[in-house]
Description:
The structure holds 2 protein chains of 2 kinds. Chain A has a single domain (64-274), classed as Pectate Lyase C-like. Chain A is 8% helix and 29% strand. Chain A contains 3 helices and 17 strands. Chain A has helices at 27-30, 35-39, 231-242; strands at 4-8, 20-21, 42-45, 48-51, 56-60, 67-71, 77-78, 85-92, 105-110, 126-129, 149-155, 169-174, 190-193, 209-212, 223-225, 256-261, 269-274. In chain A, a hairpin with a 7-residue loop joins strand 16 (256-261) and strand 17 (269-274). Chain A is elongated, with a radius of gyration of 20 Å. Chain B is of the alpha+beta class. Chain B has 2 domains: 5-19 and 164-305, Alpha-Beta Plaits; 22-162, Alpha-Beta Plaits. Chain B has helices at 34-44, 85-100, 177-192, 257-274, 299-305, and strands at 5-7, 10-12, 16-30, 57-64, 75-82, 107-110, 117-120, 134-138, 141-148, 151-156, 158-174, 197-198, 210-212, 221-223, 246-254, 280-284, 295-298. The longest helix of chain B has 18 residues, at 257-274. Chains A and B meet through strand 12 and helix 3 of A and strand 8, strand 9 and strand 10 of B.
Amino acid sequence: MNGVAMRLRQAPGPGPDLRLDLRAINPAAMAGLSLAQIGRLSVTQGRLTLPLAEFFDLSRTDLPDDELRIEGDLARCDRLGWQLGGGRIVIDGDAGDYAGAAMTAGEIQVLGNAGHLAACEMAGGTLRVRGSVGDFAASTLPGSMDGMRGGSFIVMGDAGARFGDRMRRGTALVFGDAGDFLASRLVAGTIAVGGHAGLHVAYGMRRGSLIFAGVAPAVPLTFVPAVAGAEVIWQLLARDLARHGGPFSGLPTRSIERHLGDVAADGKGELIIVR
Amino acid sequence: MSDPLLINGVIIDDGFAEAFPMKATRLLITAHSLVWACHAAVAATGFATSVIACGCEAGIERELSTEETPDGRPGVSILLFSMSGKELAKQVERRVGQCVLTCPTTAVFAGLAEGADLIALGKNLRFFGDGWQISKVIAGQRYWRIPVMDGEFVAQESTPVTKAVGGGNLLLLARDTDAALAAAEAAVAAMKRLPAVIMPFPGGVVRSGSKVGSKYAALSASTNDAFCPGLVGLVAHSELNAGTGCVLEIVIDGLTEADVAEAMRVGMHAAIHIGAAGGLLRISAGNYGGKLGPYHFHLHKLLEAS
């Protein structure tokens, strides 16, 4: 029980202060280090590389050794939990862009909102955002071909546009509403939305499952109604999603309507509209 | 060797059943109704009485309620045992491919939580989908959805293999056929109520007990002449006396040594309950002097444990 807590002394302002890049800060990097050594870990701000202690007050907690707690207004602190390979990070506040990006294992909890590109290219572990996320969550890093490729990503608020763009594997849930182009160019994986979805859902979807537990979307013309039932896989999916509660809690007892497509792309995806 | 026990007029030999290590897996077959799950399970476990010529020993473990299955439909759990993981993999693929995939409305899932190895379940059968098969990973498990004429066949990608025990056995020596069948049926009924064991022979009972080897070089096993009533007085080492008119054997495969032991124990109790008044004279067990397998189930010890 020797975890670390970091409290942001002053949020990087919107004026001349540049955003902070915290990609090097995670439980593994802190393992076995004293607080003084942790304070000397590097963070970047613009062109400058500065010690962590320049921005954060550090203390020990009675949390497990591999748990890191970060407090403060971190909305301008980016890449929190970048490539996380284990342990747990709790962000008590908002997170900046790229929260949980490229993480492969472990758990991140954001108790506030997260910025753009949360969980992009996430490959494993669990990222849970209590609030909302910005655009391109669960999608690709700029220039990359594949988006989220494993793990569980749970957004308890709303999601911005292009949620799950080019996502390839894993499960991503939005308890609230999702923006335009939800699951665009989806390669595979499962996305479930509890609220309303914006325009152009599943644009260019190749494979995967897109589940609407709340408001039924306008089904694109490039999808065809499914004639055959899929009760078995639906029960497996619904039971797994139901454990997250909220709008997904009653899924196993509800009937579904499926549409297959996008036939303009590979055509093996499915929109599941829960009745 | 101590004196044989006499319980309810039945002699219990001071001997042991000799069993050997096997590889096993459990599959859960679900369907639209229990009837169709049973059809698939019966077919998949057909012609699987002995590894001598069937490739595996298999049987229905029990029926599953809707609360016990991954998809909330009625189902059946089956156990399959083989002498190697490689042979087991071959048998699972053939049997699921020909008997479960083909059966209307069925789906198949792994029934063991973990095992030393994994073998393919839907992993190779998916190619039947001719490119239309879809993979779905749910809670860390990969499933394959294969389009078929009644909708889609869902199969978990792989199933764990565990070390198991095969060849536990009881020999029921009775006055006549009626008495032997009654004792065997009672024992099998009691054993079937237990989890993690199967009795792979028809009705759980085998009348052609075998010994290792044969006078014919090509045969690895031949009739257990010491227990054949028809050879009393003809073979030098017959185990039977003139009052024994029929001998039946129950073979038990189980996931663990304890499972086999418990099945043998409850089976003996059920048979003993019929007793000498019902025509059961003696309970023995097949062994090969301890040379065949490392698991020895001593009849007296099993009864003492109860």
